[in-house]
Please model this.
Amino acid sequence: MNRTARLYALVEELRAAAPRQRTVASLAARFEVSARTVQRDLQALMETGVPVRTTPGRGGGWTIDSRATLPPLRFTVEEASALAAALAAADASTPYAGAARTAAQKIAATMTGPASEAARKLAARIVSLPPRAVSGVRAAVDHALATDTVLRLSYVDAAGCESDRLVEPAGLLTADGRWYLIAWCRTRRAGRGFRLDRITAAAPTTERARAHDLAELLRGSSAADAARPATLTPLAPPP
Model:
């Protein structure tokens, strides 16, 4: 059993036993590996966000919060390839790119058989050019969207003019392979779209942003007809 398959199997073993704990020794015997290997695997699961936890001392062991984990997912070959292609598009200029990397690790841990092989073969045949976006900018934008707070940014427009803005984020727009932050701009007193790769600096604030309707801010712009991607329909509530 390779490591990816073992990580997946470890999660399922802990899910089956929850809320009871399993010791490292018992897990090592179950998967016919050393206790050190199991310890390293469990630590890797923790670092990728899997809700495993340990209780030290006599009678202690490892367990998982089964309420915060999913049962096994069975992907078709086509679905696995689609996921590999979508994750490849997440670079430093893409919102939540860091989280996409840890999500890729979790998805890889759930895939076995032909689906896993298809995703790995496609992943080995995809390359990308280094992104131009600054990771600190992306992190600040992600934080502002997640916490509904005002964002301070420096922006270079299409004419090359740079300006400093205070904006109230409303959402994200993707078009032609580019990402835009849609926000209410306090400087212009209007809705504006800021291309992420043109934001040269961004800093979060602690000030709460007012709620803005994304469709309303886009009204009258070239993106007025923007609609929710069909692939996101299962994730988002009805508009």
Remarks:
- DSSP finds eight helices and seven strands in the chain.
